[in-house]
Amino acid sequence: MAKRDYYEILGVDSNVGDSDLKKAYRKQAMKYHPDRNPGDTDAEASFKEVNEAYEILKDPQKRSAYDQYGHAAFEQGGAGGGAGFGGMGGGFSDIFEDLFGDFMGGQPGGGRSGGGRGSDLRYNLEISLEEAFNGKQMEIKIPTTVECESCDGSGAEAGSVPVTCNTCQGHGKVRAQQGFFTIERTCPSCQGQGKIIENACKSCRGEGRTSKEKTLSVNIPAGVDDGNRIRLSGEGEAGMRGGPSGDLYIFLSVKDHRIFQRDGQNIHCRVPIPVSVAALGGDIEVPTLDGARAKVAITAGTQSGRKFRLRSKGMPIMNSHSHGDMYIHTIVETPVNLTKRQKELLREFESEGKGAHSPESEGFFSRVKDFLADLKD
């Protein structure tokens, strides 16, 4: 079954601000919370749906990807599966934290014990149609954060180590009773890390990571199309204090070509042909995306717009050894700058034929004649 629109799930429009988005989320989460709907499987499913929608829309990067590509931006290990742009993560304890963290002095969306996971990154890469056809190994440069070399990602100055947080005893979370709820929230002392840094590293100021431009090698497979994405696991921002790195998502776009037009895995090419070849027939050569030339046999009497098919001369089909097809669209070119003799020959041809060589014109004007006769009746 097709997934519902995230904005529809939360009851907001696509222009909603962060504050109103959060209010709508809290309202829906309270409405469908399992403790308020014991044994109601539909309410539980709606509760998970609300959580998933908010996890995507509250993050500007994820929201931008969703607005542009919809659910397709998170397929193959996306939002519903705990990967993609950070995934769902968190379980019900994060919902408690988002709903009630403000009342307890905590921060919504806090982390767990240990280093926090780094953010996922997006990189937009434009390639040519030839590169999409052949595939290519490319190098890209991205500004990101990497593990601090001075402290090996610990965040502590050399010679010192982080100590266990006394508030949460190293768990990164604290619990409190709120009516009939037991609320678990991020520890306010260590911000969910479970440890306190008493002597912070001067290079990274205790974060365990520093800013750096990184060069990466990317393999562009043959046959990619607009909107395809490539995931480089662990190549996003470094995590806080030794936490796991995020992922890098490369979104591809293919530039328009000056000769060929792409339609899925098929290639189209408009080719002008002389009127003599169109009338008498003959062979023409056309370029193909692999850099070669293909011979096309033009049959006598070819009109503008006729298509000729070249099998397996289109785009490679990803994850297979097959190719799409190439279609040649003929454009019969009217001769210009004729000499006096050429004009005389054309007039002789016209007088000899008396319309017999132009069946489409004859048919059209015959229909016009019938149409005008019907108007007089």
Automatic annotation (TrEMBL):
Q: How is the cofactor bound?
A: Binds 2 Zn(2+) ions per monomer.
Q: What family name appears in the similarity comment?
A: Belongs to the DnaJ family.
Q: Mainly localized where?
A: cytoplasm
The molecule here is called Chaperone protein DnaJ
State any single GO MF term.
Answer: oxidoreductase activity
Per UniProt, the keywords (alphabetical) are: Chaperone, Cytoplasm, DNA replication, Metal-binding, Oxidoreductase, Repeat, Stress response, Zinc, Zinc-finger
Instruction: Read off the lineage from the record.
Output: Bacteria, Pseudomonadati, Pseudomonadota, Alphaproteobacteria, Sneathiellales
| Highest taxon listed in the record's lineage | Bacteria
Instruction: Give the residues annotated as coiled coil.
Output: none
Q: What domain notes does the record hold?
A: The J domain is necessary and sufficient to stimulate DnaK ATPase activity. Zinc center 1 plays an important role in the autonomous, DnaK-independent chaperone activity of DnaJ. Zinc center 2 is essential for interaction with DnaK and for DnaJ activity.
* CXXCXGXG motif repeats mapped onto the chain: 148-155, 165-172, 187-194, 201-208
> What residue stretches are annotated with the CR-type domain?
135-213
Domain J, by residue range, is: 5-70
Query: Which coenzymes or cofactors are required?
Result: Zn(2+)
Its biological function? Participates actively in the response to hyperosmotic and heat shock by preventing the aggregation of stress-denatured proteins and by disaggregating proteins, also in an autonomous, DnaK-independent fashion. Unfolded proteins bind initially to DnaJ; upon interaction with the DnaJ-bound protein, DnaK hydrolyzes its bound ATP, resulting in the formation of a stable complex. GrpE releases ADP from DnaK; ATP binding to DnaK triggers the release of the substrate protein, thus completing the reaction cycle.
Q: Which gene is the coding source of this polypeptide chain?
A: dnaJ
**Record note on quaternary structure:** Homodimer.
Please state where this protein is localized. Answer: Cytoplasm
Sites where the protein binds Zn(2+) 2 = 165, 168, 187, 190
Binding sites annotated in the UniProt record for Zn(2+) 1: 148, 151, 201, 204
Q: Which sequence ranges are marked TM in the entry?
A: none
Zn finger (CR-type) start-end: 135-213
